[in-house]
């Protein structure tokens, strides 16, 4: 935020000067004073951040000036400063939209100072919220999803179509193909929804017994342990989007209840008789083939058709051709810049190795593999030696997905090298450019195994 512009409107020049001097003690404040209501109104176009307005001016009454300000700039806070200690005047002015009322007594300047600080803080917070909103909008636009393969271009087209309406969207694809990313892109690209909440519920992550209350809410005392009333996710998402991830994991009993909610467009909290209207847009995702689940009797057919809406199928990574390299470079660049590592390069051999792999864990796995390679590589060059697919067997794929301390990462990396170089401490110390004694000390402390 630039300077904070304050108007003081007071026909008592001496008082106005004293106020101006006091408020200018903060160099961020740009204070201007005017002796008439007209002068103030004529200068409103310069957009002051706040106005101190004397109630009794020679040309207009304070309330007239206040109304004129509120007509053109309803957001500008106006603090009335007046000699009258008349409570009813204060109430009247507050009703007309004044921000505060300060009586001209010996503490008036101090209160003006405090009022300025409060309002400035509010402005800064609002500024910050606007910036964060912009960031979020930017973060989840299409550019967040990387890849140029034909298969993915079809997906982009569908995301665009899905964003233009409120149609239900069912996103399918193997684990780690970016289903959640697509759900976010649909929500944040929808002009009506992007400023409203996106409420995500992972059906698989919530214990069966708690899921109904999580989705639809409950009243106090509805069941043992329900000590307070609780709003469900559907109600939280009113006006926005609810994203039901892993919908294929929902049990049949709850599927029936969900169907009713979708049909009636209202939820009834457990323990209540009063339904609440919900108009949330619904997105669902699953790594299962729902049609097969229906055939096997594990998913209700009527719910399946209700949820199908616009289906978007995410191709597995192995079918996206050179996107594998595009994504790898993207994750490496991100990782290097987050960790101040300078530019990292990936050799042709390493790229070939990535392209020849099957990627059962899809993009999530690729991210983990190349981030680990970025840590392991020497001289800013990722070679095929740094690309490690057996990671799930020796726990290294977890390395990047878990949040460890730096020491924790060190232990994992050194142990990995020890396993790889047949427990040759001298070789490993050389490779990692650390002292042999460091490794021996860690072995002695039972942090490493040789
Ligand atoms: N095309 C892409 N571009 C950039 N990042 C991607 C892309 N696809 C997936 N990712 C990243 O890969 C990781 C996994 O993606 P996401 O969680 O969206 O997958 P998912 O299909 O929902 O997985 P799951 O089925 O396991 O829930 C995330 O870190 C996501 O940001």
From TrEMBL:
Residues 145-375 form the Sigma-54 factor interaction domain. GO terms for molecular function: ATP binding; DNA binding. The modification 4-aspartylphosphate is found at residue 54. Keywords: ATP-binding, DNA-binding, Nucleotide-binding, Phosphoprotein, Transcription, Transcription regulation. The keyword DNA-binding applies. InterPro entries: AAA+_ATPase, AAA_lid_NorR, CheY-like_superfamily, Homeodomain-like_sf, P-loop_NTPase, Sig_transdc_resp-reg_receiver, Sigma_54_int, Sigma_54_int_dom_CS. One of its GO terms (biological process) is regulation of DNA-templated transcription. Residues 5-119 form the Response regulatory domain. The keyword Cytoplasm does not apply. It comes from the Bacteria. This is Response regulator with CheY-like receiver, AAA-type ATPase, and DNA-binding domains. It comes from Owenweeksia hongkongensis (strain DSM 17368 / CIP 108786 / JCM 12287 / NRRL B-23963 / UST20020801).
């Amino acid at each position: 935020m630039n300077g904070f512009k304050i108007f003081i409107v007071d026909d008592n020049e001496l008082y106005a000067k004293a106020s101006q001097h006091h408020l200018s003690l903060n160099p961020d404040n740009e204070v201007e004073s005017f002796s008439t209501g007209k002068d103030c109104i004529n200068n409103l176009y310069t957009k002051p951040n706040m106005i101190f307005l004397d109630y009794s001016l020679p040309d207009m009454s304070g309330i007239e000036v206040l109304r004129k300000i509120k007509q053109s700039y309803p957001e500008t806070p106006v603090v009335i400063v007046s000699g009258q200690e008349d409570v009813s005047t204060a109430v009247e002015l507050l009703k007309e939209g004044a921000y505060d009322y300060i009586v001209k007594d010996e503490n008036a300047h101090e209160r003006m100072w405090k009022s300025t600080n409060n309002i400035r803080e509010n402005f800064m917070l609002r500024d910050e919220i606007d910036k964060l909103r912009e960031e979020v909008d930017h973060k989840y636009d299409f550019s967040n999803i990387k890849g140029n393969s034909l298969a993915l271009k079809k997906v982009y087209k569908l995301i665009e179509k899905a964003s233009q309406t409120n149609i239900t969207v069912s996103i399918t694809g193997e684990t780690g193909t970016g289903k959640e990313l697509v759900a976010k892109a649909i929500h944040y690209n929808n002009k009506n929804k992007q400023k409203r909440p996106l409420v995500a519920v992972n059906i698989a992550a919530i214990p069966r017994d708690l899921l109904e209350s999580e989705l639809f809410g409950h009243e106090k005392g509805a069941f043992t342990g329900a000590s307070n009333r609780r709003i469900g996710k559907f109600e939280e998402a009113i006006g926005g989007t609810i994203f039901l991830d892993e919908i294929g994991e929902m049990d049949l009993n709850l599927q029936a209840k969900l169907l009713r909610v979708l049909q009636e467009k209202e939820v009834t909290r457990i323990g209540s008789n009063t339904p609440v209207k919900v108009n949330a847009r619904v997105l669902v995702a699953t790594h299962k083939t729902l049609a097969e689940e229906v055939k096997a009797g594990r998913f209700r057919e009527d719910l399946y058709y209700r949820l199908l809406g616009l289906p978007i199928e995410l191709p597995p990574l192995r079918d996206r051709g050179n996107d594998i390299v595009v994504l790898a470079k993207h994750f490496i660049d991100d990782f290097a810049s987050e960790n101040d590592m300078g530019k990292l390069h990936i050799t042709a051999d390493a790229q070939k190795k990535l392209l020849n792999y099957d990627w059962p864990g899809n993009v999530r796995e690729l991210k983990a593999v190349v981030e680990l390679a970025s840590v392991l590589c020497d001289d800013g060059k990722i070679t095929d030696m740094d690309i490690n697919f057996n990671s799930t067997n020796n726990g290294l794929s977890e390395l990047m997905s878990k949040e460890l301390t730096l020491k924790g990462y060190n232990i994992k990396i050194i142990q990995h090298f020890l396993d790889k170089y047949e427990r040759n401490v001298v070789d490993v110390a050389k490779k990692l450019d650390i002292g042999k004694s460091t490794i021996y000390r860690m072995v002695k402390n039972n942090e490493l195994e040789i």
